[in-house]
Write a structure and sequence with these properties.
Layout: H1 4-16, H2 20-25, E1 27-34, E2 49-50, H3 51-63, E3 68-79, E4 82-92, E5 98-109, E6 115-121, E7 128-129
Parallel strand pairs: 1-6
Antiparallel strand pairs: 1-2, 3-4, 4-5, 5-6, 5-7
Length: about 130
């Protein structure tokens, strides 16, 4: 049986490997990505990226735009069909500059074993430059 924790790990591994096809295949057709939750530069209306086309556009415009993304998860709490991961994401941009941000990253598993929701809790003001 696939758990939300399994899906979260697969999602992070696909992002780190720049595996667009593999990452998109993890999502249910009616899934939502909210990264971060609420209005942001990635989602001005704060409604999330819903469905395959919007999630693919999020990957292309946000994830793929980076040289690398590395997840370091310090704690993980699996409850029912959801997991909350506490950790740090390090993003390296083309040219070598990098930032880190602490956050809580949640995944909800759909009845068919796909990601129903990926939600990220992090504060733009807390993003720190590391190079």
């Amino acid at each position: 049986m696939t758990t939300a924790r399994d899906l979260g790990k697969a999602s992070m591994a696909a992002v780190e490997a720049h595996d667009r096809v593999g990452w998109l295949a993890l999502f249910a057709d009616d899934a939502v990505v909210e990264d971060p939750i609420g209005p942001s530069v990635f989602d001005p209306e704060g409604k999330g990226h819903r469905g395959p086309e919007a999630i693919a556009a999020f990957y292309d415009n946000v994830i793929a735009a980076n040289e690398s993304i590395k997840f370091t998860i310090r704690q993980s709490f699996l409850c029912g069909d959801e997991v909350a991961n506490v950790g740090v994401i390090r993003i390296t941009f083309a040219g070598g500059s990098a930032v880190e941000v602490d956050g809580v990253y949640t995944y909800r598993c759909s009845p068919n074993g796909k990601i129903a929701a990926l939600r990220a809790y992090w504060e733009a003001d807390a993003v720190r430059s590391i190079t």
